[in-house]
From TrEMBL:
Organism: Nocardioides cavernae
Keywords, alphabetical: Aminopeptidase, Hydrolase, Metal-binding, Metalloprotease, Protease, Signal, Zinc
Ranges where the Aminopeptidase N-like N-terminal domain occurs: 69-238
Protein name: Aminopeptidase N
InterPro entries, per the entry: Aminopeptidase_N-like_N (IPR045357), Aminopeptidase_N-like_N_sf (IPR042097), Peptidase_M1 (IPR001930), Peptidase_M1_aminopeptidases (IPR050344), Peptidase_M1_dom (IPR014782), Peptidase_M4/M1_CTD_sf (IPR027268), TAT_signal (IPR006311)
Reaction catalysed by this enzyme: Release of an N-terminal amino acid, Xaa-|-Yaa- from a peptide, amide or arylamide. Xaa is preferably Ala, but may be most amino acids including Pro (slow action). When a terminal hydrophobic residue is followed by a prolyl residue, the two may be released as an intact Xaa-Pro dipeptide
EC number: 3.4.11.2
PANTHER family in the cross-refs: AMINOPEPTIDASE N (PTHR11533:SF297), PROTEASE M1 ZINC METALLOPROTEASE (PTHR11533)
Signal peptide: 1-38
Cofactor dependence: Zn(2+)
Residue ranges of every copy of the Peptidase M1 membrane alanine aminopeptidase domain listed in the record: 327-471
Length: 487
């Protein structure tokens, strides 16, 4: 995620009290007593927890379930800003459940579990949709939950945020760490990735763009249904759709299909500039692959909205951007670097956010040094020399910044500095071995700060404990020592 850029040496992201959450689901097991001859009585089904266990946002995600797929089918009205439809959630119970929750803000009219009507209620300020099936769900059993709804998403807020971005001509569902609860019921935390299949019906003549590949386009007398589906599972906040009037362009580079879109709500000059920038996408991916290895997904792209979100976001396979002109290539670098760092390898807790934003910012520095610009180490030392020790920049412990500061400037800048300092400390060759090992071993999953530290130490063969303490866990400017990568 980045803020709308303005010309300056280092981009400063929008500081906003964004939200998130997490809960590690636990599989219930029965244990035999060493001298027993029969299985101990099973415990009674319980209510799944309303959160997945992330201390930053305790209501994010849910306990007792593991989602494998969302099949979203909706209709959107531009004038009314009304969203109606239903979502089928394929999930597995990870414990014996009397009831369970999904994260959803909209008004619900009906819920079924495996085709049977289920009781439902809203709790915790309307964010938790508590579902009680007719029969308890056994641990390990798979189920289809269908939620029907009809409401105006712009009426709702969660944890102080109103994330629905729309006018009478266009809508785009983009935000971090929360967006899903405004348009589909979900287990809203990066720990539970799932395949996302999106069908959106809009008035005839309008376009819809979403993640993955366009599977079908059904044109009726008055409306058109667009069907998009991503091949690879994703964290719920990375799922999106944009609807309105868009110009689409597509192609294939080195076997990788790409599709980009630009809003026709922009001026002709902004449309042309934005399309020029979006068409840099496949070349940027090819450049990033030289350092990071193969692009992790089966399609790539980007979309420029005519709305004014104030930031760009790394929606999986197709980041969304504000109109910024044609020259801001490093913004595209940042969001596409997130396809590796944040999308393919997602955070384990939101406290690990520096692994997303620090790496994406560092890859901007790396892009500049490999494309005729300033060396990453020069950018690193400029930060160090020009940010005073008394600055609040150094007071953020980026390894665990707290919910209010997950998108603080330091998460980006100090995060990138940590990586360049590591590069200085262990050497260029070993550094890139660390990065590629991290991506290979965490591929398709989640990664924590502790795991990254362990990977760096193992691959480098060095004791890096004091190094990471100085950069990630100390609320002060690291000393200018060789141990800290500043020799």
């Amino acid at each position: 995620m980045t803020t709308r850029p303005t010309p300056r040496p280092a981009r400063r992201p929008l500081a906003r009290p964004l939200l998130a959450g997490m809960l590690g689901a636990v599989l219930a097991t029965g244990l035999l007593h060493p001298t027993a001859t029969a299985q101990a009585p099973a415990s009674a089904p319980t209510d799944g927890a309303p959160g997945i266990g992330d201390p930053y946002w305790p209501l994010d995600g849910n306990g007792g379930i593991d989602v494998t797929e969302y099949r979203i089918s909706t209709r959107y009205g531009f004038a009314s800003k009304r969203l109606s439809g239903r979502t089928a959630v394929e999930l597995t119970a990870t414990q014996d459940l009397a009831s369970f929750s999904l994260d959803f803000l909209l008004k619900v009219s009906k819920v079924t579990v495996d085709g049977e009507k289920a009781r439902f209620a809203k709790a915790d300020g309307g964010h938790e949709l508590r579902i009680t099936p007719q029969e308890p769900l056994a641990a390990g059993s798979a189920h289809t939950v269908v939620v029907s709804y009809d409401d105006r998403p712009d009426r709702y807020a969660y944890a102080g945020e109103r994330n629905w971005l729309a006018n009478r001509s266009e809508v785009v569902t983009m935000n971090e760490p929360h967006m899903a609860p405004w348009w589909f019921p979900s287990n809203d935390h990066p720990l539970d990735k799932a395949v996302v299949d999106v069908k959106v019906r809009v008035p005839k003549g309008r376009e819809v763009v979403s993640n993955g590949k366009l599977r079908a386009k059904k044109v009726g007398k008055r409306s058109t249904q667009w069907h998009w589906r991503a091949d690879e599972p994703m964290a719920p906040y990375l799922a999106f759709f944009a609807a309105g009037d868009f110009t689409l362009a597509k192609g294939r580079q080195r076997g990788l299909p790409w599709l980009v879109a630009v809003s026709e709500q922009l001026s002709e000059a902004d449309q042309a500039a934005s399309m020029k920038l979006m068409k840099k996408t496949p070349a940027v991916v090819a450049g990033l692959e030289e350092d990071l290895g193969d692009y992790p997904f089966s399609v790539v792209g980007g979309i420029t909205t005519g709305l004014d979100p104030g930031f760009a976001l790394e929606n999986q396979t197709r980041p969304t951007y504000p109109a910024v002109g044609s020259s801001y290539t490093t913004l595209v670098v940042h969001e596409l670097a997130h396809q590796w760092f944040g999308d393919d390898v997602a955070v384990h807790h939101w406290s690990d956010i520096w692994l997303n934003e620090g790496f994406a910012t560092f890859m901007e520095w790396r892009w500049n040094e490999t494309h005729g610009g300033r060396a990453a180490d020069a950018t690193f030392r400029s930060y160090y020399d020009n940010v005073a020790a008394s600055s609040d920049f150094w007071k953020v412990t980026i390894g665990d910044p707290g919910a209010a500061r997950v998108f603080d400037n330091a998460i980006y800048g100090r995060g990138a500095m940590t990586l360049q300092a590591l590069r200085n400390r262990v050497g260029d060759e070993v550094f890139w071995q660390v990065v590629r090992t991290w991506l290979r071993e965490q591929k398709g999953g989640n990664g924590s700060t502790a795991e990254f530290e362990a990977t760096a130490a193992r691959v480098s063969g060095q004791d890096l404990g004091s190094f990471f303490t100085a950069w990630l866990r100390t609320a002060s400017k690291p000393a200018a020592t060789a141990d800290n990568g500043l020799g």
